[in-house]
Amino acid sequence: MTWRVAVLLLPGFVAGLTLHEFAHAWSASLLGDDFARRQGRVSLNPLRHLSPLGTAVLFWLGFGWGKPVPVNLYHFRHPKRDNLLTSLAGPAANVLLIGVCLAGMLLTRNSFVFGPRAARSVELAHLLLQFGAIINAILATLNLLPVPPLDGSKIWPCLIPGLKPTFAPKLTSVFVVVLIVLLWTNRLDPLFHGVIRAVGSLTPESDLQKVARLWDSAEASLEARDYAAAERDYTEALALNRWSWGMHYERASARIAQENWRGAMEDLNEAIRLRELHHPGEPEYYELRAVALEALGLRDRAEKDRARAAELRGQSPDADAASQPATDSQPAATEPADAF
What we know:
Blueprint: H1 3-30, H2 35-38, H3 52-56, H4 58-61, H5 79-108, H6 116-143, H7 156-159, H8 169-184, H9 189-202, H10 207-223, H11 227-240, H12 245-257, H13 261-278, H14 283-295, H15 299-313, H16 317-320
Helix pairs in contact: 1-5, 1-6, 5-6, 6-9, 10-11, 11-12, 12-13, 13-14, 14-15
C-alpha cells in the first residue's frame, strides 16, 4: 500500500465508515433499541464513528475499522432477527455508497468538458470516486464474512437453532486474531482482488484515462513504425483533448512519416500556437515544421523556422543546422510533450 493510494482511499473510507456505523445505529433505533442513539451514534459526523487506530492502519494495510456501535439485544422484539438486520444495515450502506460513487463517475468522466485547466480537477474527482467505490466494496465484502465479530456472523444464530445471538468474548477474540493474521499475510487478497476487478468493470473510463491509453498505444505504434495506426490513435485522443500541443506534434511526426505534408503542417501550426499561449516556443516544433515546409517547396519559410528554432536554443543558425531532424520516413525521436 503506497501513501498515494492510501490518501486516495481516505475520503471514501471516511465516508463509507461513517455511513456504515450510522446505518447500524439508525436501524437499531428503528427496531426498538435506542442505546446507540443515546450515545450520539445516530449521526453523520465522522468524529463520532472513526477510530484513530482503525483509520491509521489504512495507510499500511489498505483497510481499517471504526468504533463499534453498541447494541442492547433486550430492546429488540426479535433479538436474533433484529440483530441480523441491524448488522446487515452497515454493508448495505456501503453498497449504497458504491452506487453513489458510480453515478458521480458518470458526471466526471468528461475530463475536458470545462477546458484543459479544469481537466486535472475533474479527473481528481473522478479518481476519488473510483477509489471510494473500491474501498466501500472492500468494506462491504469484509464485513459480510461470516466470522465474529464481523456483521456476517450474525446470520448463524438465525440459521442454527439454540445458538445465542452473540458469541462469547473469548471465541470472538480468537476469530479476531485469525482474521488479522489472514489479512496481514495477504490470504484474503484473492477475494479483494476479485472485488476490485468487479468494481473496475463497472466504473466508466474518464476522457483523461482514454487519452493516456491512446497516447501509449500511439507511441507503441510509432516505435513499431506503424504510422497509420499511430495517426488514428492520436486523432481519436485529440477528439477528446484538442488542446494538447504534444499530441498535435506527435501526430505531425506520424503524418510526415507517411509524407502527408499538409496534414503535418496543420498539426504543427496548431501545436506551435497552443504551446506559445502558455510557454516559450519549442525549437523541435519549428524544426519539424521546417521539414514539412521544405517538402512543400516553401524554402524561405522553412529557413525562418530554422532560424527561430536556433534562436530558441540560443544558437546561431549555422550551429543549429547539425541538429535538424531527419527528412526520411522515420520521424525524429522526441520526448513526449505535455498533454495540456
